[in-house]
């Protein structure tokens, strides 16, 4: 009886110890939780952004045994272990663009700085941290966005219609709408085209065509959802057409102006040339004419004298 009671007591002691160990282990695991953004992170194109990731230190942190790994899907973005950055397996796309805050690692900051962001950097990023007190990995989405530029207007006029075209550049693909004077959306006569430039940004061109002479006020709307950017511009087709015609008249005038100036200069040059020629042909030219006349009449008088002499000889 005493032996069996001793066994039962020993069994209880072992079970209590195991439960205590398991409780402590689960408590530590539950307490070690890293924190990353709960909503998608929006980074501005061409700028630096910080991918936040923090972990609990619990008063005990050993840099040499800590491992931090950042990934985008399967790509290695940045790795840190053995107390230093390990970039041998880093994707080439992220070379010289990533860095950790080494001086803040002991305070539980495993955030990553990403420089010169591009649309290709968008995707699901994961932060993995392993220390002496626990390990965990969490993921969150990263979006890349760029503010759309001020729309550049272009007006084309034909005998029957007027086309208003607006061009802007940004990221991601925007929502574009045309509204009439009453605020109703226009669906006919509109056309929107998206192209990609060398930096991966969108170049959006949206046009609206109406009959020539229509005195209508139009509203152009562009909405960039990721940056909550709205561009609203109002236009009057009649005024825009008048401006274009005025500019075309000025352009034609400016084109003809050099021709007119050259023509006037040419006429003045001819007048000056004729005046100079008359001056040179003044008294000298008159004397020259008289000399020529006398030279031409001299042989005739000599011939007449010879004939008279011959006649006088015969009579004699």
**How many beta strands in the DSSP annotation?**
16
Q: Radius of gyration, rounded? A: 48 Å
**Total helical elements:** 3
β-strand percent reads 25-35%
Terminus-to-terminus distance: 208 Å
Mean pLDDT: 80
Q: Could you name the key traits of this structure?
A:
six-stranded mixed sheet; four-stranded antiparallel sheet; 3 helices; elongated; disordered C terminus
Describe the SSE topology:
Layout lengths: L1 H30 L9 E4 L4 E3 L15 E6 L2 E7 L2 E2 L12 E3 L11 E3 L8 E9 L2 E12 L6 E6 L3 E10 L4 E5 L10 E7 L5 E10 L5 E8 L4 E8 H44 L2 H33 L1
Parallel strand pairs: 1-9
Antiparallel strand pairs: 2-7, 3-4, 3-8, 4-5, 6-7, 8-9, 10-11, 11-14, 12-15, 13-14, 15-16
Q: Your description of this structure?
A:
The protein has helices spanning 2-31, 237-280, 283-315; strands at 41-44, 49-51, 67-72, 75-81, 84-85, 98-100, 112-114, 123-131, 134-145, 152-157, 161-170, 175-179, 190-196, 202-211, 217-224, 229-236. The protein is an alpha+beta fold. The strands form four sheets. Strands 1-9-8-3-4-5 form a six-stranded mixed β-sheet, with no helix packed on it. Strands 10-11-14-13 form a four-stranded antiparallel β-sheet, with helices on one face. The protein has a three-stranded antiparallel β-sheet with strand order 2-7-6, with no helix packed on it. The longest helix has 44 residues, at 237-280. The chain is elongated, with a radius of gyration of 48 Å. The termini are far apart. The model is unreliable at 12-29, 240-245, 293-298 and 311-316 (pLDDT under 50).
Brief overview:
The chain is of the alpha+beta class and 316 residues long. The chain is built from three helices and 16 strands.
């Amino acid at each position: 009886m005493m032996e069996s009671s001793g066994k039962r007591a020993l069994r209880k002691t072992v079970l209590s110890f195991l439960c205590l160990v398991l409780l402590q282990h689960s408590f530590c695991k539950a307490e070690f939780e890293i924190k990353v953004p709960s909503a998608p992170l929006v980074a501005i194109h061409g700028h630096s952004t910080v991918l936040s990731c923090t972990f609990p230190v619990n008063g005990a942190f050993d840099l040499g045994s800590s491992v931090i790994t950042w990934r985008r899907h399967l790509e290695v973005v940045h790795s840190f272990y053995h107390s230093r950055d390990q970039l041998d397996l880093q994707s080439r796309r992220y070379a010289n663009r990533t860095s950790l805050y080494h001086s803040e690692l002991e305070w539980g900051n495993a955030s990553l700085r990403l420089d010169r962001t591009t649309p290709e950097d968008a995707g699901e990023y994961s932060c993995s941290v392993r220390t002496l007190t626990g390990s965990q990995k969490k993921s969150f989405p990263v979006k890349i966005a760029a503010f759309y530029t001020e729309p550049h207007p272009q007006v084309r006029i034909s005998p029957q219609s007027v086309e208003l075209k607006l061009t802007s550049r940004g990221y991601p693909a925007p929502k574009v709408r045309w509204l009439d004077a009453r605020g109703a959306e226009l669906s006919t006569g509109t056309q929107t085209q998206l192209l990609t430039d060398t930096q991966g940004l969108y170049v959006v061109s949206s046009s609206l065509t109406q009959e020539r002479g229509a005195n209508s006020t139009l509203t152009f709307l562009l909405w960039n959802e990721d940056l909550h950017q709205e561009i609203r511009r109002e236009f009057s087709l009649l005024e825009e057409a008048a401006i274009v015609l005025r500019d075309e008249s000025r352009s034609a005038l400016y084109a003809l102006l050099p021709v007119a100036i050259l023509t006037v200069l040419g006429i003045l040059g001819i007048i000056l040339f004729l005046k100079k020629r008359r001056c040179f042909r003044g008294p000298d030219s008159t004397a020259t004419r008289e000399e020529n006349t006398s030279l031409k009449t001299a042989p005739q008088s000599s011939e007449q004298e010879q004939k008279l002499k011959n006649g006088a000889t015969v009579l004699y």
